[in-house]
Write a structure and sequence with these properties.
With 255 residues, this protein is mostly helical. It is 78% helix and 0% strand. Helix 1 packs parallel to helix 9 and helix 4 packs parallel to helix 8.
Length: 255
């Protein structure tokens, strides 16, 4: 019963985080590993569990969907879908040992994106302005990342879109949630068909993520961005440090 409560609560928080600022996998993935799910299965199960919550967020934001920097909205999901499939296949071919050692670095990359993604976008935009076709190429790469791991991929998308023009971050929440879901949909199908999902834990987390995803999107239209960002950064930083310590400290101590 304690495991069920932990997973359900983690799903709610993860769904809300994805709707508000991204980074929900920082909560869902450690929770699944904590109850005994192997790392690769925890990652695939987390993706499946958070997917409906992402759809709930996209539905809540549906009225704000519009082209991004002149790039037609219909072109971005198609490109992201293709990248997501590639990323999912790569994950399924990754061994549990390899994924365990690469996971802290994926979390670190996601943490950096959450912390500095907007600043990086502003700095790059001051020096470069990219063509819409280049956006589709980068979007494909982000789709691969989203299908493989996906932590903070929404923030990375917003930073990249900033190279097109100066965007209102609040306005980009709608296309962000849609495209994160696009990156995940083919990954979800691939994981299910491959039998790489722990269903009891996944369904429990899924229920919580739907509630958290829809509620987070509703809160996101009213909550002060600084508050949600500060909470997200604190949580992601602590979890990243914990995974580095758990993964690498034992080997350092045995030297």
């Amino acid at each position: 019963m304690d495991s069920v409560i932990l997973i359900f609560t983690a799903g709610m928080f993860a769904g809300a985080m994805n709707a508000l600022a991204g980074g929900g996998s920082f909560v869902s993935l450690p929770a699944l590993i904590a109850v005994g799910v192997p790392p690769v299965l925890a990652n695939t199960s987390s993706t499946v569990a958070l997917f409906p919550g992402g759809l709930a967020s996209a539905w809540a934001y549906r009225s704000g969907l519009q082209p991004v920097g002149g790039v037609p909205l219909r072109a971005l999901p198609a490109t992201t879908l293709c990248g997501g499939l590639v990323g999912a296949v790569l994950l399924l071919r990754t061994s549990a040992v390899a994924f365990t050692f690469v996971l802290p670095w994926l979390l670190l990359a996601a943490s950096i994106a959450l912390m500095f993604g907007r600043r990086i976008g502003d700095a790059l935009r001051a020096r470069w302005h990219i063509h819409a076709n280049a956006v589709l190429a980068v979007q494909f790469a982000l789709g691969i990342y989203g299908g493989y791991f996906g932590g903070a991929v929404g923030i990375m998308m917003i930073a990249m879109w900033g190279l097109l023009d100066k965007c209102d971050v609040q306005r980009l929440n709608a296309p962000r949630t849609l495209l994160v879901s696009a990156a995940n949909i083919v990954a979800v199908l691939a994981f299910i068909l491959a039998g790489a999902v722990r269903w009891p834990e996944t369904l429990t987390m899924l229920a919580g993520a739907i509630i958290g995803g829809y509620g987070g999107a509703c809160i996101g239209r009213r909550a002060p961005p600084r508050v949600t960002r500060a909470i997200t950064l604190l949580a992601t930083s602590c979890i990243t440090v914990a995974f580095f310590v758990k993964t690498y400290a034992p080997s350092l101590l045995h030297r």
